[in-house]
Amino acid sequence: MRSSTILAAVAVNVSSVLAADGCMTNEQCPEIAALEHEECEDYHMFQARGSTAPYPGHLSDLMKLVCDGIDGSCGFENIVYPASNGNAWCSSANQGATGGQKQMQEYAKRCPNSKLIVLGFSQGGSVALDLLGGGGGNKVFGCDQPVNDALDRTKAPGSKKQVVAAASFGPTVRNADQTYTVGGGRDFNGTAVRSERALDGLDQYSDILRTWCNEGDPICAVGSEPMDVANHLNYFERYNDEASQWIIETAEKTAQSMKQGDGNGQNTTEESNGNGKGIIDQSKESIASREALAKILFFFLVAGSIMFCMLR
């Protein structure tokens, strides 16, 4: 009980402790506000803020680094959800996951060629993971989190063609020893753990996913020592440069590989002949031409045979 109370208190105070650092709101940092829009662009980020934080919250500076460094047009939109704490945490996180999926679905429908990046911190870190891999079915801070399904890696908006990178920082619900986790807290579970179903759903994205978890973070690495709230609050001070570089490289590499395939690992590359047509198109035209020529030759052959017989 005491441990649960401490964890809840830490989560409640995340936004207040960090409010003075970095860009938490659009009013504080108009250069961040300029990146927030829903228009079609090369790379579009969906970000889930931490508990009780204002929009856009702690991920602001990281998103600007990504947009400044990535090759192409870039922006973000907030995943709209309560980011509530205490007994409301479970309902809040579920609303974030299901609402975020709906936002991604609507955007992907309007902008099928855009590449999507999913980000989250603290409760928002769990939302990002649940959005991708499915979540719920567990007890967090004393409440029961409803179940939500995973996105389908073979279909929009979760397809390989569209989701090209995802990053989560200090997620509340996390399992130890996952290959996509970095940081000293990797060997510890979070406040709660993901179900096997949710882990399987998240494994679809393991090649483009990274989760940061510090040792001593009382939210994502329960039981690690020394436990200190600062270890949950310093991700963006410590890792912004590293994380932004990883996101950029992963997103660009994934996007490039999809240009050489159909979005599901099937190679459909077509070399251009300079007039906008690929080898596959040229082959089809060549076959059609040969078939047409054969029909013409056959016609003249039959006609010639008939005339020869008549003249005899």
UniProtKB/TrEMBL annotation:
Q: Which GO terms describe its molecular function?
A: carboxylic ester hydrolase activity
Q: Which UniProt keywords apply?
A: Disulfide bond, Hydrolase, Signal
Comp. bias (Polar residues): 253-274
Extract the ranges annotated as region (Disordered). Answer: 253-280
The signal peptide here is: 1-19
At the top level, the lineage of the source is Eukaryota
**InterPro entries from the xrefs?**
AB_hydrolase_fold, Cutinase/axe
What's this protein's name?
Alpha/beta-hydrolase
